Amino acid sequence: MVPIQNLYYLLCYAWNRLPEPDEWRQVAEQEFHRPLELLTQLLLVGTRRLLQQGLPLGYAEREEELTELRGRVLLTPTITRDLLRRGRAVCAYDELGPNTPLNRLLAGTLDVLGRTRRLPAPLRQEARRVRSRFPEGIEPAPLTRAGLRALRRLRLPGPEGFLLNVCGLIYRTALPDTDAEGRTRFHDFRRDEVLMAGIFERFVRNFYRLEQRRYRVLSETISWQAEADRAEDLALLPSMITDTSLESAERKIILDTKYYAAAFKAHHDRQRLISPHLYQLFAYLQNQAAQTTVPLEGVLLYPAAAHAADLRYVLGGFPVRVVTLDLNQPWPGIATDLLRLIE
């Protein structure tokens, strides 16, 4: 399981953001026992920074009973309340202020964290203290999938986007039920293999985007080298989308990440590589070969858990490496191992 301190780096890179020294110092000064504590600290650090700079403003629709027209008139409530005879109308208009969707989400998330027993008392108290610094008029929004999806469509800039991702992960770790007093319960998201697989994949890809300049880094769709009697039958073939492709003028690497407890599985009392993973990578290499003129090779990358491995093969003429990355070591070692992998 990934140590909580290293989760900070994984999340920063997964969310396409370089770790910040000041933020890391505040994180490193504390001993975390649960990932929720780390997420809360990141949310507090980022929210305090926003409050110091001034919360971002935006236009929010407001409905109000007025004596003069403003914005658009809402006929149904105006007529239902018989307001026209009194020279009044219900109007909806946009007002610039801090009651934006992001600020509402931050307020709602801090409310939840200020109540949960899964956090130590000092962190709960700090969540309530930071929440109390929000200006009046901000209506806290609950953590919901629909609300998070709507905010992601806004494509918020750097720091705000990072806080949105923190709130999104807090939502993903919340259990569907609450206790008798309405407090939300949370689980350790490191045990969620599907969630961690996505984080691990994005972490590796964005690490290479940010930390080296030799290769162009992307996730790409590989076309099948296939024919069919009918053109529409080709559309039924599954998509081949690489986790990470690294390409230079001299070399191209297709790197596939697999977040599994081990790179091997038992078969008749012997350890074997996981065949679907190897078949998938080999299919990528075979079909990509016709679309590139540079030497092509493949890497299967697993987080080290039960066994460390560094295996090298030549499969169908392609160099293939199966290797594990130790996520339990200090961060400098992780960064060094990743850079050595593509040397």
UniProtKB/TrEMBL annotation:
GO terms for biological process: DNA restriction-modification system. Pfam families: McrBC. This is 5-methylcytosine-specific restriction endonuclease system specificity protein McrC. It comes from Hymenobacter edaphi.
